[in-house]
Amino acid sequence: MSPAISLCLLVAVVTVATKASVQDTCPSPLVDRVNNFYLQVRGDVCFHFVVNYRRTFQEASEDCKQDGGTLAMPKNLELNKYLTDKSYNHYGVIEELWIGLTDIGNEDKFKWADGSEVAWTHFAKGNGPTNNWLIKQLEDCVALDPIDGFWHDFLCNDDYFSAVVGSEPKKSYICQYEQQFEDDLGDLDSGAK
Ligand SMILES: [Ca+2]
Ligand SMILES: [Ca+2]
Fold it and tell me: Which positions fall inside the C-type lectin domain (predicted)?
């Protein structure tokens, strides 16, 4: 193989590797709207770390839904570690961030934002199923502690109880967008966007 052909192949490989990132994996309206500093790609999943403002659980869920996503779903320790590490070490977040897990409407039956039952869990002591029997009726929405990666249940919204409990239900959060472009190589060639 001639050096020129080798170089061409190298350039082609690098080009594909570069393009298979935020621009291709994250929804384009999101890429256009937010500073790409807050977008991360892991495998074929795009994550938006919304760490520059806070919302209630419902507001955060709606925000993720706007571009076809959900709140992030760390269904295993590996992904949970990734989200924890990015939040704390990359973005410097030290307070809990909403993830897509709740037991709204069915106490102790936690479900992910995609409707699936929770299998692996990572609740901090005294949170989730082991929370106080009365408090757990009020705390139905789950947030990730970026310092140790454990999950905490909180009040979902601003309401009467948040004032009583003295809890602030507006938090930073992480959205998750699954890769939706099956024919991405075709799109690259045609320049479709
Ligand atoms: Ca609960
Ligand atoms: Ca709690």
Answer: 42-157
CA of 70 to the centre of ligand 2 (A): 22
pLDDT digits (tens, 9 = 90+) for 112-143: 999 999 999 999 999 999 999 999 999 999 99
User: What DSSP line would sit under the chain, residue for residue?
Assistant: --HHHHHHHHHHHHHHHHHTTHHHHS-HHHHHHS-GGGEEEETTEEEEEEEEEEE-HHHHHHHHHTTT-EE----SHHHHHHHHHIIIIIT---S-EEEEEE-TTSTT--EETTSPBP-S--BPTTSGGGS-TTHHHH--EEEE-TTT--EEEE--SSSHHHHHHT----EEEEEEEE---TTHHHHHHHT--
For ligand 2, an ion, list residues with CB under 5 A: 127, 139, 152-153
Break the chain into its structural domains and give their ranges: 25-182
Q: How far is the CA of 17 from the centre of ligand 1 (A)?
A: 43
| Closest listed ligand to the CA of 154 | 2
Q: pTM for the complete prediction?
A: 0.82
